[in-house]
């Protein structure tokens, strides 16, 4: 997790990077437990939200994020590791957030 970060500053969000799980532990709930722990940590420590990126076609990852309450907010073509991909950005906001990342209430 990366607090702030250049693409997360306007939301003052935390970014989750590289959520890949090795094949030997995939499908056993480790991904869900790790994501739940990250969400609980961020919510409990006053972060206004979380952002993450994935790629179109990673259906299990997208399903996991959507079940946890993340919404897809952007989709664009890009290149990763020399390959053309469709990047998807998901966000989970814990409440109303002003542009500077502070709770406006």
Walkthrough of the structure:
The model is unreliable at 1-9 and 98-105 (pLDDT under 50). It is built from 2 helices and 5 strands. Strands 1-2-3-5-4 form a 5-stranded mixed sheet. It is of the alpha+beta class and 105 residues long. The chain has one domain (2-93): Gcn5-related N-acetyltransferase (GNAT) (Aminopeptidase). Helices cover 23% and strands 31% of the residues. The protein is globular, with a radius of gyration of 14 Å. Strand 2, helix 1 (30-44) and strand 3 (49-55) form a beta-alpha-beta unit.
The whole-angstrom Rg is 14 Å
Order of strands, widest sheet: 1-2-3-5-4
Count the E strands: 5
Distance between the termini: 26 Å
Helix and strand element order = EEHEHEE
Number of helical segments with 4 or more residues: 2
Q: What's the number of domains?
A: 1
Write the layout of secondary structure elements.
Layout: E1 2-3, E2 14-16, H1 30-44, E3 49-55, H2 59-67, E4 71-80, E5 83-93
Parallel strand pairs: 2-3
Antiparallel strand pairs: 1-2, 3-5, 4-5
Would you summarize the structure shown here?
The chain is an alpha+beta fold and 105 residues long.
Relevant terms:
alpha+beta; 105 residues; 31% strand; 5-stranded mixed sheet; 23% helix; Aminopeptidase; 5 strands; disordered N terminus
